[in-house]
Design brief:
This protein has two helices and twelve strands. By secondary structure, the protein is α+β, with helices and mostly antiparallel strands. The chain has a single domain, classed as Jelly Rolls (Sandwich). Strands 1, 2, 4, 9, 10, 11 and 12 form a seven-stranded antiparallel β-sheet that branches. The chain has a three-stranded antiparallel β-sheet with strand order 3-7-6, with no helix packed on it. A hairpin with a 4-residue loop joins strand 6 and strand 7. The longest helix has 15 residues.
Length: 153
Amino acid sequence: MKLLLFLATASLISAQAPEFVVWKSADLKNFETKLHSKLNQSHSALERLPDYEGHSAYVVHREGTGTAEVHKTMAHMIYVISGEAVVIVGGTLISPRKADDETTLGVSVEGGQAKEVAAGDLVHIPYGLPHFFKLAPGAQVTYVMLNLENGKH
């Protein structure tokens, strides 16, 4: 009986233990080519990585300025893999439309703070602030985005 209890406990612990994962730099850079062929009308494509501890993560590739957005309770932590862009955070969404209970989209942002980002940069976008990536003609940017829900980070 003790052995059965031990095995059941070990099984529970291993089922709840977080997985140790490493995405190598070369693997992340390969997403640029893979996602290029999947661009949508917003000039972007993304692939969801496995969720860990309630946080979702994506690799995003952009080849043009996309849609602006604001989230009620979600912040972003973004690591730029390749390319460059201007990230604009804050200000006011232009032509806002509700996507769902969490997210409102817009065509751009008026005002806000603009910062240039490039490969190797790490960006934090707080929840509740409008934001979007603005790209120069012919530019591209690929990044890993970790979504952090308020209270989970």
